[in-house]
TrEMBL record, chains A, B:
It comes from Paenibacillus glycinis. Pfam families: HTH_5. PANTHER family: TRANSCRIPTIONAL REGULATOR, ARSR FAMILY, TRANSCRIPTIONAL REPRESSOR SDPR. NCBIfam families: HTH_metalloreg (NF033788), repress_SdpR (NF033789). Keywords: DNA-binding, Transcription, Transcription regulation. Residues 1-87 form the HTH arsR-type domain. The keyword Translocase does not apply. This is Autorepressor SdpR family transcription factor. The keyword Transcription regulation applies. InterPro entries: ArsR-like_HTH, HTH_ArsR_DNA-bd_dom, HTH_MetalResp_TranReg, SdpR-like_repress, WH-like_DNA-bd_sf, WH_DNA-bd_sf.
Length: 94, 94
DNA sequence: TAGAGATTTAGAATATTATCTAAATATCTA
DNA sequence: TAGATATTTAGATAATATTCTAAATCTCTA
């Protein structure tokens, strides 16, 4: 989950997640939304993928990226754990 | 909220929040939980404070740190927004 | 199968972050 | 008020992160 928190620390990556929330997009479509080079966006997408926050699937020439919500739910669980007094047995990497 | 996400990206700072979840602690008490120098912990506490995730209050010689949950709730709100399809009008920097 | 389009990989420059030691500041108490 | 305790500030160093351009890879189609 450390990778997820690190991935979420960058505003560009959070914006990518917001875009993918509405619909899946190809890497190029994502890149078109930013004033950042395609290789940089590709790097951000890879970080999100490593963190388990997005899935990628090749469709012909394009690679489609979509939101993967499982880890998002894990992060929410961690945040709720911080809020509540109960449930001290929450797992976390150091 | 960008500051909060950045603050949460560091595992030491997340562990500090977990410690403060159970009870408020002085800076020294927090530092005693880690193999990290006191100035470094002080730096982490300051980042958490700037992000609005903790509050500090001097009590005599000590400075007590406590969890401040408002921004945690904001982050949870952002995360839920990513999960759900509805509520596209969520505020976010960037 | 050659070329075009989409994406990633490689390598480098710059910026940010985490950490340390040493010194400064603030508070209490004898 | 002098010394002890608690914490922060300053300044430096090493590790990470973000971004770029150029080149490589993969896929489709004419």
């Amino acid at each position: 989950m450390n990778d997820a928190f690190k991935a979420l620390a960058d505003p560009t990556r959070r914006q990518i997640l917001r875009l993918l929330r509405d619909r899946s997009m190809s890497a190029g479509e994502v890149a078109d939304q930013f004033n950042i080079s395609k290789p940089s966006i590709s790097h951000h997408l890879n970080i999100l993928k490593q963190a388990g926050l997005v899935l990628d699937e090749r469709q012909g020439q394009s690679i489609m990226y979509s939101l993967h919500t499982t880890v998002v739910e894990d992060v929410i669980g961690w945040m709720f754990h911080i809020l509540g007094k109960e449930g001290k047995e929450h797992d976390d990497e150091q």
